[in-house]
Design a protein that fits this description.
Cathepsin B, Chain A, binds calcium ion
Length: about 325
C-alpha cells in the first residue's frame, strides 16, 4: 500500500462541484494542477436547525493513517534483505537476522509462515519461539495492532516504510512484535523501573530489545540458535575452509550473519561498525589478491560509518584482516529449510 494514497481522508460528503473553467487570459497558459483543491462549503441550514456534529477531531489522525493488510507485507518477490532499513532502534542483531532469513527461499517461507493477518480485527499475529523445559523451543504468538505498526514507523523502525513512505511492512510487523514480546516477558525489576520512569509498554519493549546477540534473535525467530563460527575456529581451520562452510550454508538456504567487535587496540580501522551485526551476502576469493573476502549487507541500508563512507548497503572486507585485528566476533549460521 502506498501511504500517500492511504492518507487520503475518506469522503464524508458528496464531492463539491468542479470549479468553473478559468477565464481565458494570461494565467490560462500556466499548467493547471490535475485536481484543483476547492474549499468545501457547508450547505446553508434552515433557520432554527442545529447543524450536525462535525467529524470528531480526535479521530482525525486515525482517519489519515495507513491501514495495513496482508497485501502490504511483501514486495513481488516475497521478503527481501533490502526491505530492512534500521534507523533509531538498536536491534541490529534482530533486523540483520531478518535480512539473513529473507536472503533465501527457505528463509522467506519461514518469515511468511510466522506472520498471519487477521482480516476481522486488522491485526497481525507473529509467531516467535521461547525456550521451554529442557531447552525445547515452544512457539508463542504475539498480536500486532495497526497502532503498533504506526508506532514502529514513528519510532524510525527497521522497515523502509518509515524512510520511503512505502514498501513492504513485514519488518515493522516483526519488530513491533519483538518489542511487544520483550515487554510481555519483562522481569519484575524491569517493569518496576519502567513504572517509576512512567514509560509505556511499547517504550519498555523497545528499550529491552536494544542490544543483543544474533544467535538469540535466530532462536526467537526459528527455535534454534544455529551454529557459530568464531575466531578460534577460523584460526584453527583457516579462511579457505571457513569460506567453504559459509558458501555451503548459503547454498543450503541457511541464514548467515556476521557479528563484529571493536578492533584490537592499535589495529587499523577495518571498515565495519563495531558491535554490529551484518547479513552475509557471500564469501569469495579476490582473484587479484587471493584474499578470502566477505561481502556483507548492513541493516542500516548504508555504510556511512567507520572507515567507509558510502550510501550502499554492501561492504566487503578481507576475512583474514577482521579475524586477525579483532573486528570479527562470529558468523551465525541458521537452520536448513
Ligand atoms: Ca527473499
Ligand atoms: Ca527504517
Ligand atoms: Ca570497526
Amino acid at each position: 500500500m502506498d501511504i500517500g494514497s492511504a492518507l487520503a481522508r475518506p469522503a464524508r460528503f458528496d464531492p463539491p462541484p468542479p470549479p468553473p473553467e478559468p477565464a481565458p487570459g494570461p494565467r490560462s497558459e500556466l499548467p493547471q494542477p490535475e485536481r484543483p483543491s476547492t474549499p468545501y462549503e457547508l450547505p446553508p441550514f434552515p433557520p432554527g436547525l442545529e447543524p450536525p456534529a462535525l467529524p470528531h477531531t480526535d479521530d482525525a489522525g486515525d482517519a489519515e493513517r495507513a491501514n495495513f493488510t496482508d497485501a502490504d507485507l511483501y514486495g513481488p518477490d516475497g521478503p527481501e534483505p533490502q526491505d530492512i532499513d534500521q534507523d533509531s532502534i538498536g536491534d541490529c542483531y534482530f533486523v540483520a537476522t531478518l535480512a539473513a532469513l529473507a536472503n533465501s527461499p527457505e528463509g522467506d517461507a519461514r518469515i511468511e509462515e510466522s506472520i498471519t493477518y487477521n482480516e476481522e480485527t486488522g491485526t497481525f499475529t507473529v509467531t516467535f519461539y521461547e525456550e521451554g523445559p529442557l531447552g525445547i523451543p515452544v512457539p508463542v504468538q504475539v498480536e500486532v495492532t495497526q497502532d503498533d505498526i504506526q508506532d514502529n514507523l514513528e519510532r524510525g523502525g527497521g522497515s523502509t516504510v518509515d524512510n520511503n513512505g512505502a514498501g513492504p511492512i513485514w519488518p515493522a510487523v516483526m519488530e513491533a512484535a519483538y518489542a511487544k514480546h520483550a515487554a510481555q516477558n519483562a522481569t519484575l525489576p524491569e517493569r518496576l523501573a519502567a513504572g517509576v520512569a512512567g514509560i509505556s509498554e511499547m517504550d519498555l519493549g523497545y528499550q529491552l530489545i536494544e542490544g543483543g546477540k544474533a544467535r538469540d534473535a535466530l532462536f526467537d525467530l526459528t527455535g534454534t540458535q544455529g551454529t557459530d563460527i568464531d575466531n578460534a575456529f577460523v584460526d584453527r581451520w583457516g579462511t579457505g575452509f571457513t569460506m567453504h562452510l559459509i558458501n555451503e550454508a548459503l547454498a543450503d538456504g541457511r541464514s548467515v550473519t556476521l557479528s563484529t567487535d571493536p578492533e584490537h587496540d592499535g589495529a587499523s580501522e577495518d571498515g565495519l561498525a563495531d558491535n554490529h551485526v551484518y547479513q552475509v551476502e557471500r564469501v569469495y576469493v579476490d582473484e587479484k589478491t587471493g584474499e578470502v573476502m566477505v561481502e556483507l549487507r548492513n541493516p542500516w541500508a548504508n555504510n556511512n560509518t567507520e572507515g567507509q563512507r558510502n550510501d550502499d548497503p554492501i561492504v566487503t572486507v578481507p576475512l583474514s584482516q577482521i579475524t586477525e585485528d579483532g573486528g570479527f566476533e562470529y558468523f551465525n549460521i541458521g537452520p536448513k529449510g
